[in-house]
What does this fold into?
Amino acid sequence: MYTTRKEKNETQAAVGLRFRSIVMPIKRASISLLVAIMALSSFLFVSPASADNGDWVFCANENSNCAFSGTKEVRFGTNNSYDYRQITNGFNCTVASWGSDPAPNQGKQCYTRDVLAEGTPRLTVDVSDHNKKMTITFSEEFAQAGTQEALKDAITLERSETSGYLPLAASDSISFSSSESGTSLVLTLGTALTGNANAIKIAPGAFVDIDEVPYSLDLEVRNIAARDLIAPAFIGAVIYGSGSQLHLKFDKDFTINAPAGADQNQINALLKSKISVATDGEHFAPILGEDHEVRQDASRQIYMRYANDMKIVLGTQTVIKIAADTLKNAEGSLNEEMLLHVSPLVIQSAVISGDNHDVTISFYDDIFDNTDENLINNIYLIKDGSQQDKQLVEGDSVAVVSGKLQIHFKEALSGASNYIYIDGGALKDRYGNIQNERAVTAPIQANVGGVDPFPADTTAPVYQYSYFSNAFQDLNIVFNEDVQNAKETEAAFLQGIYRYGSDWGWGYGLPQGTTLTFSGSVATIHFAAPLTGYQYYFQFNANMFKDTAGNRINNGINTNWLSTGSNELSYSNGRFSYNGRWLSIQFNADTDIVDQTVVDGVSRLKESISYSLDHGATYKTLDELDVVSVYGRNINILFHDAIKAGSIKFKIAEQVISDQYDTKRNKAAEVELAYNTPEITGYMLSNTASEFIFTDNALWRNQVKTVLLYDGKIGIGRQLNSSEYQLSEGKITIAKGVFQEGQYYEILVNAEGYSTKYFDGRAYKSSELFYMTAPVMTTENGITAKINLLNHAYQDEFTGNQSVVFELFNGTTPVSIVAANLKLGTGTYSANFNVSDAATNPNYTVKAYVVSKYSSDPADVGLNLASVKTQSEFDLALMNMGNNNIED
It folds into this structure.
């Protein structure tokens, strides 16, 4: 309902009115009681009028300050759920300040209106019957002064869509009633109200009070809002997780039209049952997955999420259907069936102009700017040959024209692989849909011959590296081109550096007395005294450096951890291969290392390296056929003749390698590496002797002194005796009975002058190492046979010896064999047989085996290592091993 106030320009006091509810009792009371009641009134709640905006004036949204002077009537809430009171000189429009929440989980507002003087009646207006009925209720008892016709003539109406008051229409009617229980005037309109700026005015003299004294002022109520009879409308979706999550957004608050008393779980289930999805825009399917989530989120959104990385939105035609009578607005209006187009923006093409300055990006639907005219700061270019994105710069421009994105580059594009990407949320389609993830074009190839003869420099400098110099008193930051200070002053630059020093701690700014200079591509920070901590780190924020053309670096720059220790590269790690063929030597560089012995394109690094096989007693140079290379932070040596000794000691001369920018060179290194033991493979078998194979190294084999067995069940190791193992060329055989089925073991082989060789595993019966299915044949283009294979004994660092064999038969006659020695994991294996009559000869069959060895002697295939299982048995075993890709 809507309430009235005395017009602000009215100065004449209302006289002759006697109010049954207030004035009469006060006249019989004392003056002191009157004063007490007036003082109390500023703290009293005002009786709420039902559903009114009337002469209420918006003051503030929730969590903002509602400022005014003097005493006002104030209401706090939304959607016809309001609390009322009188407040003096403003307040914070918050639940905490108000002391209660009249509309939980909804955004609220604060409104004010003047406190009426004594003698001024307040009118309340209620709009009903599809906005065709206005019920005006008076705060005091009035009587009709004249005839019904005279009263209608005294009433004028201003509608939201018109300007000024007009008499009531002939199709409008009124009725008036008055009694001690209340006074009301009902207007029945021929044409419904719309909007929220309606007003009613009743001329002076239309009513008299209980003493039959005419009321001599206008009665007016403004800002009368028609009831909202329109259901919530869809205004777009925000898509996340590549389509697995989204928010459906609507233009007004709503609730779910659930039965009275339904709890939240029941409401969510009802909402989920009312929604279906068609990824092709036509064939709708309900949301059946129990783990899929659908719920109302806040007052104007529906949140949807599919579990298990399934997608709600797929492609460009996804439509979500919401059944009729699902959503209800504050006035109870229900939605009709809604078809919501929710597919996000997808780039269809990117066309470059002939001069390579302009790119037009088309989408599968027209696009619109969603950035409040800040689109240029949400678009980035990755130029051909670069991995770093760059923002658009001065002289570049962006516009949405005819539903397409047009980008002009001041500097022409060049090369075959330019990319443009657009921040999530920067664009929306005609339905209001927003993709919350970045969109990127396919590679854009510049036109040949379209190269700008005078290209503008729009590329920001690229940071290269940092290093200390001048006895750790200077920090040098190096770029790929000349750089300058992009801050207003040197002081602003230095204080904007975020740094760590072992003697400083973390923080912004550098010590007093620090200065900054720029020289070419190097920025130098000079400290007042040499740094004495052991470790430092520096971070430069965006827009601190620029080039001579004004291009700024728009991302942060971090130095490596910089040490004030030795300014030399030193040995940090090394690896000597099991087969003695290669040696890798790593240095503690922050960057890739560089060979500094190259002269006229020829490296002399090999001449700076020597090695010893007798622990440093004597050294020899590398052979002419040995190969030395530099890769990453390593010097790699490939020996033409494998080293058979158990260890190697190498020496590298000083100053022969550097970091990438030659700020550090190596000091001389002399290091011994061992672990030159052969790789051993095989299975631990409980039902027969176990063979372990290695590439024979007679020098190592002849120095083997003991073989130790560690039993995982009892946690104790023991030395095997000569009856329990046999060492021969390329093979260690451990006797049957040493290993017990299902137990874990570790074997340690000790050879004099060599590091201990370890290998481990769990013991199996030979036929239980693998499960396999029977071969399945197809006869298209010859014969293809496939088996599924499960490796029970597979471990990350240990794989046995086995061969998979496929044998083709024509009836009972062997035709062909396909075999391979493989390190077999769980998976599918196949073999192809090239026979011309595969499709017409029904007598072809294929058998498959997994055996411990396969050689030129078909009669000696070692042990059968696999059991044939049905597909169901195989699948169950696979599941029990945890290899079925189910999430933990």
In short: The mean pLDDT is 88. The longest helix spans residues 31-41.
